[in-house]
Amino acid sequence: MGGIWKGSLPLLGGELDVTISIVPLANGRYFAALDVPAQKVGRMPTEITVRGDSVLMRMPAAGSRYAALLDTVKREMVGVWTQAGVQSKVLLRYSPMPTTSGPGTRLAPPYREEEIVFTNPMSRLNLSGMLTVPAGPGPFPAVVLVSDLGAQDRDGTVGNYHMMGSLADYLTRRGIAVLRYDDRGVGQSEGSTETATTQALVSDVQAAVNFLRARIEINISRIGVIGHGEGANVALLAAGQPLPPAFVVSLAGYGLTGQQTLLEQQVALHKASKLSPALVQAAYERKRTMYDIIRLTAPAQALSIVSNMLRQDQPALDASAAQAAARHLLTPWHRYFLSFDPIEQLDQIRCPVLLLSGTSDLEAPADLHQTQLEKELRSFNHSTTAKRLPGVNHLFQPPKTEWTLMNGEMKPLFSAVAQETMREWIMGLMVKK
Fold first, then answer.
1. Lowest mean pLDDT among 46-55, 140-149, 165-174, 177-186
2. Which residues contact 81 (CB under 8 A, 6 or more apart)?
3. DSSP annotation of 135
4. Looking at beta carbons, which pairs linking 282-286 to residues 24 or more positions away fall under 8 Å?
5. What does the angle CA 353 – CA 357 – CA 362 come to, to the nearest 5 degrees?
6. Cα separation of 323 and 160, whole Å?
7. Sign, Cα dihedral of 420, 421, 424, 427
8. What are phi and psi for residue 246, nearest 5 degrees?
9. pLDDT tens-digit map of 11-36
10. pLDDT in tens, 277-330
């Protein structure tokens, strides 16, 4: 039963790849988590009950459930996926959980890895992470990696794709030290992403940069920040503060307000699902009204209104599930992000900035987001470089034709063009100094 279960969830006009990781526990129960890479759902808590060959999974945060029969011979589950009252037949196939030993064990890398903990004195939090340092005496240039929306681990794990871990490995092998850390409330990091606003996360980046400044093997004048999505906006905000990083790389940074960003993401998803223009527009107006209520109404009153709206939109939701979903939409982070304007403070940035986006990014399309960032930055900062990478998506994966095959399965990987573009630009800055 324990392992990785993969399948496709049918949608109107398409389908979504889903992965459920199941880990047997010592008490005879199971831990399960849902990943839907296309919707940036990662490690969503999943309740699982197993009775003989019957398996029931519930994902309260998504208002979904999956009831299936387990075939231990074929190593597959066949059942019905229910969401918002819509039922779909879904087949999940088994693959083994990756292990830390045996065939395919990761070889020791040609650089030093160090588990670290650094302190954010402003928030009085300890954050855990990994520092990778190239072979040799140094001092080396270095970067801090900052993740996108939501609670993510230091590797930026989505399914079997490790965005930040892959980037850290690539850069460290090529002479750049890298600090990547678990977001607040993840792993051994203290705090919570739900209570931390985008602005508050700037202090985490500043603490990480100061940690590197105290390391003898790091070149104190060559420490930059690479951020992805919201992490890119956090990195840009840090660059406008006292004691800024030496440079910033923005990977698919957001250029629209938080509310506009989330609304446009919903529109893109609905269009991909082949909904009619009228339904897309109706859903847009409904969600915009909900976001306005969240932004402009006192939390206690907003909770009741949003919960009611969710139940009207999804009749299958019971009262408790609707309340839980409404609370998730009313976290301090979400309320702040809806009003967040990413270009408001860009005029304070003086360090070199590299803006990278992919032409296949559906969550932060370059024409909407990078165009705004580039226009604003260039009006104040002449050290701004912007590039758009053909076929690259929001997770900076290349087209699937460029993915690798492992054990007969395509394995997602970080775009080699994107990695080399960053390395070349960073090392070019080092030569200029």
1. 46-55
2. 9, 64, 65, 66, 87, 88, 89, 90
3. S
4. 286/313
5. 145
6. 32
7. negative
8. -75, -25
9. 766 788 888 888 776 556 777 888 88
10. 999 899 899 999 999 999 999 989 999 999 999 988 888 888 888 888 899 899
